[in-house]
Design brief:
alpha+beta; 101 residues; 3 strands; elongated; three-stranded antiparallel beta sheet
Length: 101
């Protein structure tokens, strides 16, 4: 049972509440605009941008930039790697709760 209770296996990406929230939103959406994430999370441009960059560097999300009515718009979506990371995270957390004795 000791080897099933290993919190160190949890990916450090999930330690941030903002990154966890971003991944949660993207897991239930096809694509999300930066402005939507900013509004939903009540985050500043810089703070949100830094967290999105970490998620991009981890290859958990991708950014697609478009021009809409001559204005740049950034859309974010979850990659297969990101989806697998979320599934692993949820499995590990569930395992921690089930084997905490």
């Amino acid at each position: 049972m000791a080897d099933t209770f290993d919190y160190k296996k949890i990916d450090g990406i999930f330690e941030s509440r903002i990154r966890l929230a971003v991944l949660s939103i993207l897991a239930t959406s096809e694509k999300v605009e930066f402005a939507y994430l900013k509004r939903k999370l009540k985050a500043t441009d810089g703070n949100l941008g830094a967290h999105l960059k970490k998620l991009e560097d981890a290859k958990y999300i991708k950014c697609e930039k478009k021009f809409i009515k001559r204005k740049p718009v950034s859309f974010y979506y979850l990659t297969n790697t990101g989806r697998k990371a979320i599934e692993s995270y949820l499995s590990l957390v569930e395992n921690l709760f089930n084997n905490a004795e």
